[in-house]
Amino acid sequence: MATPTTWWLLPVLLVTFPYCCCSSPGPPAPPSNLECCRPCNKTHCSVIECIWDPKPHPDIGPNYILHWKPENEEEEPVTTRYSLDGKIRRENFESHGELRVWVQNQNGSVKSQEIVIHTQHIVKPPPPTITSSDEDPLEIHWSTICDKLELNVGVCDVRYRTEDDQNWIWTDYNLSSSYGVNEPQPGTVYKFQVRCKCDPSLMSDWSPSFPKKSAESSPVGEVDAWLDCGLLLSNSDCFLNWKNLSISQARGYILGYEIAVFYNNRTEQLINVSMGNPSSLFVYDEMKWRLTSSLKNVSSFSISAYNALGATKTSRLPRPISGKQATEPKIYLKLNEKNLTVSWNQSSKVSDNIKQYVVQYKECLPGSGSDWIKVDKKQTTAFFKGTFKKYTSYQVSLFAVSNLNVISQLATATGYSAQGVPSKVTSFKVSDIVGTKVTLTWEPVPCSNQRGEILYYEIGLNMQGDPNHISIPVRHINVSGITYTLEALSPGQEYTVWIRAVTAAGPSEKVNKTFKINHHEDYAFVTPIVVIVLLVIAIALISFILCVFHGAKKECPLLPQCLYEKVPDPSNSQIFKQMKRQINEPLTWMRGPLYEPYPTISILEIVEIKSKVFDPDMMKKENGCPLMDCQDDQQKDPTRESSGFTDSRYGRKEYSKMVDSDEERNDCWSSSEEEQSTSGYEKHFMPSPLEVMVE
């Protein structure tokens, strides 16, 4: 309810509201740019068509109406005609007359400016018809219908471009019927368009593009090729890729490619890729070629393209290697679904040995989409345009090509057009439990399942019944695998450990493992000691068995010498030592006889050899060896006579021979042989056979 102070405002609002909110926008803008022409077909020109701005809306219908009347009409009154579709039919005008034309709306409140047109001067001929010349393959001719319209042929415009170029080249000549391109690119497809006017008339529209190919010539340049050798350049297989020649290089139809592959063992393989014969050896995709089979142990390759008139220069490229520079560049990536921009830092002084850089990108999976660009050594940016998949790893590598044609890989980087949550970690297990330490092992997430750059692996540890956990980030990823050790765990406690990979989009699904720390794990060091003791016992037992089978009387090489009975060694005798000193000292011969107070001969054994055939006169053995001769030989020993030392002299039994099982002989020597082989030591210390028999 209005108060007494505001009731007077209501009549004011009722009067002013229709003018503020319901007022009309005013008259529309008048039409402009009124033009009329008389288009012709191949035989005649019948209708005049007019256009203006703004164009009529197709759904609403015409807002303006075309009006005309004859110019300089003598009859009164002048008849004004109109058309709703903007066309003047042939029966409504004369072929060589003038018309006054304008456009207005239905109520006549808005009207365009009036124009006067001559019906013959607004004739618009159809586009000319283009033909080619057989003599010069890149010269064209055209024809018009000006003569059929009883008009003179006017000037014509010509424009052309190559098939790969979108920019037209215009001619500056007033042409009438023909045109030729000077010095065209060999084997290149050109497209021509022509438009003409009659005299007098309007200019026609452009003719449809007329393609024409220039004469072929030998191809020039080199094939842009590249070896894709995977992440490990020295050990991985290589795939050969190359691009089509440009039209300016091909200069004709390329029939095929000749490839020579050189291996490390100095063998060579020739491969012919024919354009006309499809083969499973290669694939063609988006202007690039690729051999389907990998090249193992390849050192370099060469490739050339050929057509009917010749071949390009052979392009030879070695296998890329891992290179090092004093200042290695770092790669920076800007990657989205439509393009990839690669930039790298460069030292202030570029090496004179570098000829150019090569930037390559490829998908994670071998044999998938890849591309490369060769840039000048002073350039630090490369741009790729294409379709880059989401959640797919792209490896970008920077290579340097030296003047000696050596290719070195300088740096690599990995990028994603869009990142997602990675898949769960595989092969996660508790590999070793020693005391209170536990070693965890797992394998990195494969690049095909990463779906994003792995920032780190997160490990969580939970006690049984304890919801709290310890989160341990692992920042560095190893290609072959990753391990982590948990320390200071409680004996007898059961644990649950989990792992997950983390990208910028979030963590992966957890993988859990359960284990328990036992009390007896502290005595794990006893196991190696027990093994060593058992090994020593086994070796001793085997040695004993071998010696038993070797023979009781023979020396066993596996047992120490201290386990056998002692055998005298003449080199330990004090007499021999004194004799050696006398020989070395000139005056010692004047001294008394050598004396050994207590000679140690160890244990001696007297062996009696009984002959089965006994001759009392000759005292022969079974084989006839005379013992008396042996006695005479022993008695004639000057050493024995001069020394005067006998066994009975020292109260010991005489000995005849030291028993040595290795020196036993069953054969009998002749007396002469025995005399030659008997040493002075034996003659001095050993009794003769006769003395042995008598005793």
From TrEMBL:
InterPro entries assigned to the protein according to its UniProt record, in alphabetical order: FN3_dom (IPR003961), FN3_sf (IPR036116), Ig-like_fold (IPR013783), Type1_Cytokine_Rcpt_Type2 (IPR052672)
**What residue intervals traverse the membrane?**
523-549
Give the record's membrane topology: Single-pass type I membrane protein
Identify the keywords attached in UniProt to this record, alphabetized.
Answer: Glycoprotein, Membrane, Receptor, Repeat, Signal, Transmembrane, Transmembrane helix
Which PROSITE patterns does the entry mention?
FN3 (PS50853)
Name listed for the protein in its UniProt record: Interleukin-12 receptor subunit beta-2-like
- Name the CDD domains on file: FN3
Identify the stretch(es) annotated as Disordered. 625-695
